[in-house]
Amino acid sequence: MTLLPPTAPGATSTGTAVQGTAVPTTAAHPASAHAKRRTVAELSHDFRLANGRLARRVRQEQADNELTSGQFSALGAVFRLGPMTLSALSEEERVTPPSMNRTVNALVEAGLLDRAGSAEDGRKIVLTVTDTGLSLVRETRRRRDDWIAKRILKLTPEQRHVLAAATDIMKELANS
Question: What does the pLDDT read at residue 114?
Fold first, then answer.
């Protein structure tokens, strides 16, 4: 496999080329010099699997195992973003309003969310996190952060540096 320079036809700005071409190692990512060369397709596959496994493992560190991941995600969105309408929450979570309505009903029934009329428009219903919901989100975040922190402490300083850089790259990917 031949690497294409970033300026070559078919290459991206990072020097990676079309599927089937190896991903270059660079001084900016020193650990990658020790990793085997992978094609973009192989890296995509490995990244997706590793990210999925890590996400599933972290989700297990939840203060209330009765909630589904979708319910906790919706609760977390209202916690992060503040009071919002059902339609705004549906859009944020990328689910249909009827599906989000079922999720919200379960969270209201569990005492984790409240519904109230909007002060600006009485026809609109605004969702807010209850004190019980706040406690649940905070405890779950603490457990998840602790679980990850314990594993990060076992990494070498170089691995931590690479992880910090990879985290920034993952944020870019998630926001693109």
Answer: 97
